[in-house]
Amino acid sequence: MSEEDILLGIALVVALAAACQILAGKLRVPALILLLPAGFAAGALTDVIHPDQLIGESFSALVSLSVAVILYDAGLGLDLRNLTGHTRAVVGRLLLFGVAFTFLAVCAVAPALFSRSAGLDVQMWAGLGEERERIKDAGITLARGDLLATATNPRARLEGVNAVFLLTDDDDFNALASVLVEDNVEGPVYRVGPPHESHGVVAPYTGGAVLFGGAPVRHVLAARYEQGARFRVQPASDPLPPGHETLFVISADGRLVPVDGTQTLTPQEGDRVVLLGPVPTQGT
């Protein structure tokens, strides 16, 4: 979505919410009764109200926070003096045992959740239907079809994307896309290196970060894989096996950092590395 669409969507949400609150006050009904149908209608009838695109990856967290605020506000309005008999006893037990149980559960689960390192979150885009099916079959998250158009739109920006890797077999496309996408994402943009003897229109003359420092280049990687070389993931602290090359470092916080020849990568504790092994010799 463009910046104008995002601003329009946010403005429409705020206007609908305020109108529902005012109307609910005049009708003396809970605002939720009007907010729900208004939200359903706005989502179905407009093209600018899409919470997952307006808010991005924070959508789920904001929904949880909103529910917590609603419940907290409802709890503040609870007056035990208005409760009598069996209802008062039930609410009292909920307050006593519910709070204690929640506290103990959080204390037990929180260490396991927050000590676990984040995994690598990858999305892959492809234009051809066959390629998209292969991505899904491999268990990789398939990016939505308009992702590339959004990434190359000078008025748009992809939030939450900390690196882009252009790996198509069209070197000129990779070079042009790297220039167009560079200002629309939060992190660096890498492209696989073209053949050294390439006479492409754009690729040999375009700047930008080239994966693995340009060696091995695209067709060399493909050829080595077809000849039996395989990728290997191991802890960075393990010794490098003979004949293997380091291609990527997967940091403990889930970032994929490639070897690009412009900097020296020093893996930290908890990091993993992606290696490319040698081509097996005949008879092995």
Question: Termini separation (Å)?
Answer: 53 Å
For the report, how would you describe the main beta sheet? 4 strands, antiparallel
CATH architecture descriptor name of the largest domain: 3-Layer(aba) Sandwich
Gyration radius, in Å: 27 Å
Extract low-pLDDT stretches.
Answer: none
In CATH, the topology of the largest domain is named Rossmann fold
Q: Approximately how much beta-strand content do the residues carry?
A: 5-15%
Written description of the protein model:
The protein is an alpha/beta fold and about 280 residues long. The chain folds into 2 domains: about 5-115, no CATH class; about 125-275, Rossmann fold. Helices cover about 45% and strands about 10% of the residues. The protein has 9 helices and 9 strands. The strands form 3 sheets. The protein has a 4-stranded antiparallel β-sheet, with no helix packed on it. Strands 3-4-5 form a 3-stranded parallel β-sheet, covered by helices on one side. Strands 1-2 form a two-stranded parallel sheet. Helix 6 (about 130-135) links the parallel strand 1 (about 125) and strand 2 (about 140). Helix 1 runs antiparallel to helix 2. The protein is elongated and about 85 Å long. The relative contact order is 0.07. The mean pLDDT is about 75.
